[in-house]
Amino acid sequence: MDEYLGLSPDHPQSYHYFMHKHLFDHVNFRPENINILNGLAEDVEAECAQYEAKIKSYGGIQLFMGGLGPEGHIAFNEAGSTRDSITRKVSLVQSTIAANSRFFENDESKVPKFALSVGISTVLDNSAEVAIIVLGKNKQKALSETIRHPVDSAFPSTYLQTHGNVLIVADFEAVESFQSKL
Ligand SMILES: N[C@@H]1[C@@H](O)[C@H](O)[C@@H](COP(=O)(O)O)O[C@@H]1O
Fold first, then answer.
1. C-alpha 100 to ligand 1 mean position (Å)
2. Full-model pTM
3. Which domain holds residue 68?
4. Atom 14 in ligand 1: which residue has the minimum CA distance?
């Protein structure tokens, strides 16, 4: 769904690397069927346009699977991402940089400040199903807002309320504070 801008595919914190290490290296997907945004693209706009077009050329995505950022981002759609946003270059907000610094030796200066990401429209308008995996106490507030907050670009994950087929997979820690009200 997204990739840090400026990280090579073999950088251990790139999403390329993550996906290969944890999934593609263990299954027999054909390489030509693996599509991840290129964080080293010279022409960023063309890279994003091609990615969006490729999704549409296949008639959409059967299953979008992602996580939830501390302030409600899905993929790297930070606060302010609009309903009609598509694959594009995005700036990461401070809370995302702080949260993701754990993967960069806890040094915020090493976290890329930009990324390429599918947009809200890319997810909502092109997927049969969306699955969001939410783990840990630090996601309690974000998960609660995702479900309860009125749909608002200030909290992009609230857009998921408008998709007809969303599955949220959460652990007890992520739902602890409000599970009795569900
Ligand atoms: N770009 C990713 C997001 O796509 C992901 O949703 C988020 C939460 O990930 P995790 O569930 O590992 O905390 O992390 C990053 O910011």
1. 8
2. 0.92
3. 2-181
4. 69
